[in-house]
Structures are given as structure tokens and as C-alpha cells.
Design goal:
Layout (H helix, E strand, L loop, with lengths): L3 E6 L5 E4 L7 E4 L13 E5 L10 H7 L4 E4 L11 H12 L2 H9 L1 E4 L3 H4 L11 H11 L16 E5 L6 E5 L10 E2 L5 E2 L11 H10 L6 E6 L17 H14 L4 E5 L6 E5 L7 E5 L26 E7 L6 E7 L5 E8 L6
Parallel strand pairs: 4-5, 5-6, 8-11, 11-12, 12-14
Antiparallel strand pairs: 1-2, 1-3, 4-15, 7-8, 9-10, 13-14, 15-16, 16-17
Helix pairs in contact: 1-3, 2-5
């Protein structure tokens, strides 16, 4: 029988201490402490867009893959509220799903957010409850109380795994806390904002990222809740902020940061994008979405490599370290764990 803990909201909207069940409390299922991967890692899975009101059987398929790491890239719940009691209750509903428990028991799980778990559809810096939502997010994902993530605005962070020869750096961006409001055309489609003051990351996060790209690593996986590599589509993408997108390319160049790969979510489909830009190696962006949400209409993507997947999916990066020039596989899996997409490159392709 599943063990359950009941928590009350504290004044700061965090998770309080264990207490008896009360009508104004929020039920959270007991979640195990995540065990850190041992040694070098080679299997990283990820996903996004999971409604707490729907079954999530694809998480069972992900758990069966015995990954070293699973990354939630946002819309981990559909919160969409300024009522922190409501937000916390929705996290509670996710926590009690057997599929979610199964995933947590299979590997280490880390997360960033997107708009719906941030609290407002397509929202950015203008959302008034960003600090309260941040506290709930960090408590739900078991972020240590002494974590640096709690000491700065936003939820961006990084992780390092493996020895110096096999080091994988995971960079999780926050594309909500600091992001300039989007602008639209007469058809209510989002259009590029060419203002040099418009931002995706904000000044503090950019400085942090510049430093991260200077740290030693063989492969750098950048978790971006919205798509980085695809072409403009009228919805949320980095292409809405072309100055910021070019700043990312330039930041990688300046740091001479080898091995950068983007993973992304948000759009309820799966695809691989490849960007060729001057004086830089190819930038790949593997998108996986959604765990419960599906798209039916294909919007052309100038930079797409291969086919698009409209079924429930999770993404995966698999690294074959045994080769002199390690091979990196970009994979998409379906509900039964079946492989629906596989494209590979060698590490030397994404080096200066």
C-alpha cells in the first residue's frame, strides 16, 4: 500500500512539516530521495507537457529503460493559477500517480518549468506570483534547503556527472521568470521582438550561463522549456527573440564551449532541429512533448531533421562512450517503449 504524507501550506507557500490530515491540507504521496547516478552516465531521458488530470502510462515505458537521468522540461503540471493552494494541490495530484512514482523509483529526476507550472499560459516576467510559485516548485522537486537555486531569482541550475573524460553537464534554463512579454500581430500570432532590451533569460541568468559554458565538460545538455532550434511558427519559440537567440550562439562561440546540445518541449510533438550558423558547429535541438498532450497539425520547421512524431513520446540522448569518437543518439520513444526516431552524430561534429 502506498505511503502518503499530508502537508499544510506554510505562510510562505512552501511545504510544511508532517501533520495530521485536515480539510485545508494538500495530500502529497511520499516520494523517495533520488539516488545520484553512479559513475559515468550514458542514458538521459526527458519529457514535458503532462496534465495531472490524465493517466501517464508513457512514464512506465521511460522507467523500464533504466535511464541514468530523467529531465522534466516544463508544463510538468497544468497549474495556470495565482492561487497557490490550487497550484500545490495540482502538484499533489501528480505526486500520487503510480506512473510518476514508478519513474521516481527508476532513476534520478530533475526539472525546470514552463508556463503552465510557472502559473500562467505563455507568461513571463509579468506574472505576479513568481516567487511563491518558485517556492512550491523547489519544495516539490526536493531541492535541498541549502541549494544555491533558492538564493537567486528564478530556478535555473546546472548538474555535472561523470569523470573528466566522460563529463556531462546538464544546464536547466528558466525561460519564464525574466522573459519580456511577447508581442503579436493582427492575427494574434507571436512575432519577433528585435528590441535589444528584450530578453529571454535576464542579465543575471546570462552571466551565470556564460560562466557555465566555461566549465570543463565533454557534452553540455541545455534544457530549454521552449524550442531553441526550430524556425518561427507564430507560437512560443526562441525565434521570437532573435537578438537573444544570436546572443546564445555568440556566448557559445566566446566560451569555445564544445559539445552543446539543446533539449526542449512545449509543443506537443517530437522532432529534431539542426541549426547551421557561421563560425559555430551545428546546434541540435531534440524536442519531446507531450507526456499527455498531443498536437494534430504540423507547422513546417525549416530546420527539421527527419520525421515529426505526433504520438505520446519521451525523448532520449544515449551516449556510446566506448568509441574513440563517442557517438550520440537522438531518440524518441512511444507508449510501449518502441523507438519512433533515431538519429546519431559523433561528438567531434559538435566541437570547434
Amino acid at each position: 500500500m502506498k505511503t502518503k504524507l499530508t502537508f499544510l501550506l506554510s505562510i510562505g507557500y512552501g511545504l510544511s512539516s508532517l501533520t495530521s490530515c485536515k480539510t485545508d491540507s494538500v495530500l502529497l504521496c511520499n516520494r523517495p530521495q533520488h539516488v545520484e547516478p553512479q559513475g559515468n552516465i550514458s542514458k538521459i531521458a526527458f519529457g514535458s507537457c503532462s496534465s495531472q488530470n490524465k493517466e501517464q502510462p508513457i512514464l512506465n515505458a521511460a522507467a523500464e529503460k533504466k535511464n541514468d537521468l530523467f529531465v522534466y522540461l516544463g508544463d510538468n503540471i497544468y497549474g495556470d493559477t495565482e492561487d497557490m493552494n490550487v497550484l500545490l494541490a495540482k502538484y499533489g495530484k501528480l505526486s500520487c500517480k503510480a506512473e510518476f512514482q514508478n519513474l521516481l523509483n527508476s532513476c534520478k529526476v530533475i526539472a525546470t518549468w514552463d508556463d503552465h507550472d510557472y502559473g500562467v499560459n505563455d507568461g513571463g516576467v509579468e506574472y505576479s506570483k513568481k516567487e511563491e510559485s518558485k517556492n512550491i516548485f523547489l519544495d516539490f522537486w526536493n531541492e535541498p534547503k541549502v541549494s544555491e537555486r533558492r538564493n537567486h531569482q528564478g530556478i535555473y541550475t546546472s548538474y555535472y556527472y561523470g569523470d573528466s573524460v566522460h563529463r556531462v553537464q546538464i544546464i536547466l534554463l528558466d525561460l519564464r521568470t525574466f522573459r519580456t512579454p511577447l508581442i503579436t500581430n493582427a492575427n494574434d500570432s507571436y512575432i519577433p521582438n528585435a528590441d535589444s532590451a528584450a530578453t529571454m533569460l535576464g542579465a543575471e541568468q546570462w552571466l551565470w550561463l556564460q560562466n557555465e559554458f566555461q566549465q570543463p565538460a565533454q557534452i553540455r545538455i541545455v534544457g530549454s522549456s521552449t524550442q531553441f532550434g526550430r524556425s518561427l511558427n507564430g507560437y512560443e519559440t526562441w525565434a521570437n527573440f532573435p537578438v537573444e537567440q544570436e546572443k546564445m550562439f555568440q556566448t557559445i562561440r566566446n566560451a569555445q564551449a564544445n559539445g552543446v546540445i539543446f533539449i526542449s518541449g512545449d509543443v506537443h510533438l517530437a522532432e529534431l532541429s539542426k541549426r547551421l550558423v557561421p563560425n559555430l558547429y551545428p546546434i541540435y535541438d531534440l524536442t519531446s512533448s507531450g507526456i499527455t498532450q498531443l498536437e494534430e497539425v504540423d507547422i513546417p520547421n525549416t530546420y527539421r531533421v527527419g520525421n515529426v512524431n505526433f504520438d505520446y513520446n519521451v525523448g532520449a540522448l544515449q551516449i556510446d562512450w566506448s568509441q574513440t569518437d563517442p557517438e550520440i543518439f537522438f531518440k524518441i520513444y512511444g507508449l510501449t517503449g518502441n523507438e519512433t526516431y533515431n538519429h546519431s552524430i559523433h561528438l567531434s561534429e559538435i566541437h570547434f
